[in-house]
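Before a colleague's protein record goes any further, I have to sign it off. What it holds is a sequence and that sequence's fold in token form. My question to you is simply how this chain folds and whether the tokens agree. Thanks in advance; the entry in question is below:
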Amino acid sequence: QVQLVESGGGLVQPGGSLTLSCAASGFTFSAFLMRWYRQAPGKERELVATISSNSGYINYADSVKGRFTISRDNAKSTVYLQMNSLKFEDTAVYYCNTAAKRDYWGQGTQVTVSS
């Protein structure tokens, strides 16, 4: 069965950086598009970044463009989100999602940007 395990979150000061990882299993990772989402307290889940199966297509939400970088390693069945120049408003639980099973969500990883 599909399993996604997010990690790498934490507490960081404004302007800082974090790299999130999402380890996937239970499906042919290299065949499917992957996405990162986030959900801040009291808000709806928001799409942050998308990467196609071969990394040929990448897209970002306007709010993170130029600061975040999505990448993947198909050999390791892992997708990454490099986050730079973090802002208070980036505070959220971050989730990865696979087109192989759109209704599956892992436990997420908490990112808190605070001084």
